[in-house]
Design goal:
Elements: H1 2-28, H2 35-44, H3 51-65, H4 68-74, H5 83-94, H6 96-106, H7 110-124, H8 126-166, H9 169-176, H10 181-197, H11 201-212, H12 219-231, H13 237-258, H14 263-271, H15 287-302, H16 306-315, H17 320-339, H18 349-377
Helix pairs in contact: 1-8, 2-3, 2-6, 2-7, 3-6, 5-6, 7-8, 8-9, 8-10, 8-18, 10-11, 10-18, 12-13, 12-17, 16-18, 17-18
């Protein structure tokens, strides 16, 4: 037994070391997303209400910390992209008023914006704070994933599987993107871990509600989770109803106080083009436009990592204990796509992670059989 314990400790150390090296690599190779500029603007509004000053400070950070190639793209000075996108970026860089009109679109992540502001006060600045938040969240996701799959697959199989999942393109993208997706995915993944693995319902549901303040679309996951908890008699019907109402009201309150322009603007930005002055637009988006976007979204799904991960998840459906986990996250993906029929891998990272957990239950069976074979041979 001591030898096995020592071996496990070595494997855990090697996994954490590999995850650390991967995180350092992602820190050095971030994706400088345009969304980050609006998040940084909202973060500065915590202390500075002068929009001209906020605009100047944000773009000063961009000039200081963003490499020249990526900076040209963010400022709208790089050829090759759709003209409306780069015209919008140029106008935001030149005009504090146009810049201000985009801030409500990204104020709907209130806790993420506050996290950027708080971390920036340590001396990191805004740009590096967004990078650190994503990379640290990626690292935390890797730890939670290993703890989860290790319970099924053991230290050796668990470390190997967790590592392969964490270096897969959709998950490394989470760590590289300067957006709220990494930290929101980390919180919601921890929530599912507490609810379905550790059986700590209060902690899990608390994190579930908190995740909505990092990414409001996780309300689409709150519904299936609460429904399952009620069906399994882990929570009373009226309590599930109150929590569901709280989740929906949280989204409505966030959208109201952020000044969000509504779902038509969301559809326009995803399926039509990049607005130049969103507060001055009258957006028209019909049901026919929605159906067209839905068909295009299905094509994006077919060309994404969704199908391989879906097959990976179905491998574990023979094990009853993970069917619920697979079901609620798949329901989230479906609901999310119906509400917003676009496809971004970073939006469904929690589903990919849970598919890996489901597949780990099969590794447990393999491990037990392998151990039994060694014992019988010995």
């Amino acid at each position: 037994m001591p030898k096995i314990a020592v071996r496990d400790e070595i494997l855990i150390f090697l996994y954490v070391l590999a995850l650390t090296l991967s995180s350092i690599h992602l820190y050095r190779k971030p994706i400088y997303a345009m969304d980050a500029i609006q998040y940084m603007g909202n973060a500065l509004l915590m202390e500075d209400r002068d929009i001209v000053s906020v605009h100047r400070r944000v773009y000063a950070e961009v000039d200081r910390w963003v490499p020249s190639d990526a900076r040209r793209g963010l400022l709208g000075n790089d050829a090759g992209a759709p003209e409306d996108q780069y015209e919008s970026r140029r106008e935001r860089a030149k005009s504090s008023q146009i810049f201000a009109e985009f801030l409500p679109l990204f104020a709907i992540r209130p806790l993420y914006n506050q996290a950027i502001w708080l971390l920036s006060k340590t001396g990191l600045g805004l740009v590096r704070s967004t990078i650190v938040i994503s990379v640290a969240s990626y690292f935390a996701i890797g730890l939670i994933l290993f703890l989860w799959v290790k319970r099924y697959a053991g230290a050796a199989f668990g470390a190997a599987m967790a590592w392969l999942l964490m270096i897969s393109p959709p998950l490394t993208e989470l760590g590289r993107e300067m957006t709220s997706d990494a930290i929101a995915t980390c919180i919601i993944f921890a929530s599912l871990y507490f609810i379905f693995e550790k059986q700590r319902l209060v902690a899990g549901l608390a994190l579930l509600l908190v995740s909505i303040f990092f990414r409001t679309d996780f309300v689409a996951l709150a519904g299936p989770v609460l429904f399952v908890c009620w069906m399994e008699r882990r929570i009373d019907f009226w309590k599930a109803g109150v929590l569901a109402l709280l989740a929906v009201c949280s989204v409505l309150v966030i959208n109201h106080f952020s000044g969000d322009y509504g779902i038509k603007m969301l559809y326009y930005r995803n399926f039509v083009g990049t607005p130049i002055a969103p507060a001055e637009m009258t957006v028209r988006f019909t049901f026919h436009d929605y159906l067209s976007a839905f068909r295009s979204g299905m094509t994006l799904i077919a060309n994404s990592f969704f199908i391989p991960f879906l097959l990976l998840g179905t491998v574990g459906l023979a094990e009853r204990r993970v069917r619920t986990l697979f079901g609620v996250t798949l329901a989230y993906v479906c609901l999310h796509f119906v509400i917003l029929p676009n496809w971004q891998e970073r939006w469904v990272g929690v589903f990919y992670l849970c598919c890996g957990v489901c597949a780990a239950t099969v590794l447990e069976t393999v491990r037990i059989r392998y151990s039994g074979r060694i014992t019988s041979t010995g």
